[in-house]
Amino acid sequence: MTPDIVAVKILANHSLEAVFATGERRRFDLTPYLSAPAFAALTDPARFAKAYIQYGTVAWDDETDLSPDTLYLLGTPVADAVPEPRKMA
Question: How many domains does the chain fold into?
């Protein structure tokens, strides 16, 4: 089962970075999907930038959403640049 998305960051050129409940991050480029009627409204960068998390997936106000499965399976893994600092006991 694919983990829920807990955060989303909007990137340039209709891309986004999803953070999953496991801590994994995946980058996803929506450009190839924008010609489909379901995603046509997201060609507007201002509208695309209004993505938010709803019930563990990325959604937009016009009831468009992206499945966590799609973002996880087709997204590109992003490695953390800086690991979390360890806390001293």
Answer: 1
Say whether 65 sits in a helix, a strand or coil: strand
Residue 57 is inside which H or E element, if any?
strand 57-59
CATH number at residue 53: 3.30.2020.10
Whole-model pTM: value is 0.83
Instruction: Give residue 82's pLDDT.
Output: 47
Q: Give the Cα separation of 36 and 54 in Å (integer).
A: 22
Residue 50, domain member (yes or no): yes
- Is 87 inside a domain boundary? no
Work out the average pLDDT over 32-54. 95
Residue type, 48: F
In a domain, 34, yes or no: yes
- Bridge partners for 10 per DSSP: 16
Q: Tell me what the mean pLDDT of segment 56-85 comes to.
A: 84
User: In this structure, is residue 10 part of a structural domain?
Assistant: yes
Distance CA 52, CA 60 (A): 6
